[in-house]
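Support request, please re-run this one:
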Amino acid sequence: MANVFGQIFRIMTFGESHGPGVGVTIEGIPGNLEIHLATVQAWLDRRRPGQSDITSPRDEADQVTCLGGLENGRTLGSPLALFVKNRDTKPEDYQDINQVYRPGHADFTMQAKYGISAKSGGGRASARETIGRVAAGAVAWQLVKKIYPNFDLLAWVHAVKDIHMPQDPNLKTTDALVTRDLIDKTHVRCPDLAVATKMTELIQAAKKKWGLSRWNHPLRHSRFARRARRTRF
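Re-run finished. Output below.
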């Protein structure tokens, strides 16, 4: 997977799911610009796991720390480094499946590409990696707002399986114009409240049916897992 994105505004994410932490370095930011870490934290709070029963149960505070490139709230022109410490790490919970290529994960892909894959969690191929992207996006958003004060950026869940929001070229739901507040009213992040309810019910039904969670993987107690553990990569 790629770790570096962009040309002028260039970011590199780092860290693994069950390592000390994850983060991002950002190059290309001019010096003497005001950047608010509180804004970055607010964006990270929106993506933080454990906020509902349809997200990961992982309990993380996701508190951002600046390691360099910022002084007294102003950029120095050097790379900006942002770091989030991993707190809820339990690598021992993966010991009995660490010789299994898990379906829906990148275990085999990472092994084929690098000759090794993380044995606890997804390593780099984990949703924890998106922390760096969200933090970089929060910085980029602040920079663009300085040039275009009326600029905003919105994203939301349009569909889950066969449940879709109605198409509207004016970005309206069945009830109102799409806004950030409307998006954040539901944990599924769908601004159409009626559709969001159906999406949530579908996710909850799938979770109940398959028992999918970080600590109760369906391969853990299967005969396939027991056979796979006897075969090394």
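The CA atoms of residues 38 and 64 lie 9 Å apart. The helical segments are 37-47, 107-114, 130-147, 180-183, 193-210, 223-229.
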